[in-house]
Amino acid sequence: MDRNTTEERIASLIAPFNKKEIAITDASTFSGDLEFDSLTVMDFVAAIEDEFDIIISMNQQAEIETYGQLIDSVVKLTS
User: Fold this and answer.
1) What are the structural domains, with CATH classification, of the chain?
2) Which pLDDT does position 60 carry in this prediction?
3) Interhelix angle 67-78/3-14, nearest 10 degrees
4) Mean pLDDT over residues 43-69, rounded?
5) Which of 8, 23, 30, 51 is least buried, going by the fewest C-beta atoms within 10 A?
């Protein structure tokens, strides 16, 4: 799956979690810019895993800090 298609699908998934409707870029951070708490992160990760039929390990989650990193990780996991 290419990066653009992956980004479109993730954008539709993140919309309900982006309560403040913050403009999201590849550099947007989940805890800082989007103000996701740990429960929101868990729910969002579950939505990503369900949508793409993948598993994002706890170690991988710890390394993903930005929206761009998430997209790249999902692309890698689905290839």
Assistant:
1) 3-78 (1.10.1200.10)
2) 93
3) 120
4) 95
5) 23
